Amino acid sequence: MASGPGERRGAGEAGGAGARRTPGQRAGLTREAVLAGARAALAQDGIEGLSMRRLARRLGVAPNALYSHVADRDDLVDALLDDTLNEVRAPDPRRGDWRAGIETIMRRTYAVLLAHPDLVPLYVARRGARGPRAVALGEAMLAMLARGGIEGDPAVEATRTLIVHAIGFAAFATGAPLQPAESTLTPKALQDLFARSLSWLLDGIAGGHPMR
Amino acid sequence: MASGPGERRGAGEAGGAGARRTPGQRAGLTREAVLAGARAALAQDGIEGLSMRRLARRLGVAPNALYSHVADRDDLVDALLDDTLNEVRAPDPRRGDWRAGIETIMRRTYAVLLAHPDLVPLYVARRGARGPRAVALGEAMLAMLARGGIEGDPAVEATRTLIVHAIGFAAFATGAPLQPAESTLTPKALQDLFARSLSWLLDGIAGGHPMR
DNA sequence: ACCTGAACACCGTTCAAGT
DNA sequence: ACCTGAACACCGTTCAAGT
To answer: Testing the interface with B: which of A82, A172, A183 to mutate, by most B Cβ within 10 A?
Structure first.
């Protein structure tokens, strides 16, 4: 981790307290390095590690140095969320059964969310991602729905329903159980439940004729 | 608003800066007054008004005075969320069609969530309420499911699915649209969509035979 | 038991420098 | 353009008093 330029100060950089650079000296930071640091902070310290000040400390810069590479904290979080969606491989919207295509895209999205449990509360708080990757996935789903004869408002409603469902389920799967009884549900049971409820919704979206 | 004891200082109480009481003097605060103040703060200033310090300022007390009536901020928020569920009138779990009963309970819950849009992000963040009211509603749903022959893990899965669905939809209905295209969905269209997707899920939960 | 004063250890963000 | 120093306006929470 922390690859890239600006490595000459070596280890111990993140732990110290004093100033190593005078104003005007560069730290060799880039937007990508900031995002990589944010990921590492999230992995190591969880959501609390993702404050601007703690991230700056980890990167060995002054807190306000981050604002040269990121508009504000929301910008940082949005970039993190959208980047993560790069891990979701969407099937070709023009080939195969459209309903199976949507199921694939949603299951992969769900799997990626579960693979990044600390990000899930952020997806929840922002109700999804807004970046180019999220848009691309949304367009793929709309293309698949169109092949099933679903367009316009019903198509928008369908994608919204499915995204809500995936994020909501991920939140429950990664969070602490609400009631003691819920702890009896294993991760596998939850995954099955997601798959099942997903197909229920798709049954309804497809208009009552299940198709498989 | 702000009914109850401790009114003798009158208007202007919340705006001033100086200390009106020396240590040892009481402000006449109660847990209920703190919760009422929290509701008013939420209604007036939104989620940002719900900091301990701002709430204390509104109530005319020192920030730490709140800790005599509330364990911490989470305790305050939890009480707020559970109290609001008092507005959800649950039908008698023993009477009428069980599926219709669940639909009623979920639609009323959804309506109450929409009636308190500022609380929705908090329900989302905490993935529901945990207090006695939430437990009572959950038990009512389990009783209805039992009458439909659904018990044990499947019943817990069903309630979880339905609650995720309601909170997720409320979050999307009350929040800003994620993509420009979504803004075309009117509140009424969203409400219809919730009702429809709810019945899709219930179709699935009921085992594929829609029952109505 | 209920409240204040003061403090601790934080936040995000901005503004004015420096090179 | 990229960074630091310093500051502003906040947070939640705790501890030691006072009555």
So the answer is: A172
Cβ within 7 Å of nucleic strand C, residues? A 22-25, 48, 50-54, 63-64, 67, 72-74; B 19-29, 60-65, 68-69
Q: Tell me the nt nearest to A25, Cα to C1'.
A: D3
Q: What is the 3-state secondary structure (H, E, C) of chain A?
A: CCCCCCCCCCCCCCCCCCCCCCCCCCCCCCHHHHHHHHHHHHHHHHHHHHCHHHHHHHHCCCHHHHHHCCCCHHHHHHHHHHHHHHHCCCCCCCCCCHHHHHHHHHHHHHHHHHHCCCCHHHHHHCCCCCCHHHHHHHHHHHHHHHHCCCCCHHHHHHHHHHHHHHHHHHHHHHCCCCCHHHHHCCHHHHHHHHHHHHHHHHHHHCCCCCCC
Give SS3 for B197: helix
Q: Which residues in window 88-117 of B are less than 7 A from strand D by Cβ?
A: none
Interchain contact, B135 vs A172, CB within 8 Å:
no
| SS3 category, B172 | helix
**pTM of the prediction?**
0.85
At A180, give phi and psi (nearest 5°). -50, -40
Put simply, the answer to whether A125 touches B127 (Cβ < 8 Å) is no
Q: What does the pLDDT profile of chain B (212 residues) look like in tens digits?
A: 333 333 333 333 443 334 578 888 888 999 999 999 999 999 999 999 999 999 999 999 999 999 999 999 999 999 999 999 999 999 999 999 999 999 999 999 999 999 998 999 899 888 889 899 999 999 999 999 999 999 998 898 899 899 989 998 898 888 765 555 555 678 888 889 999 999 999 999 998 444 44
* Contact residues on chain A for B182, CB-CB shorter than 8 A: 156, 160
**Under 8 Å between Cβ of B135 and B163:** no
The set of strand D positions with any atom below 7 Å of a protein CB reads 1-7, 10-19
Amino acid, single-letter form, for residue A187: P
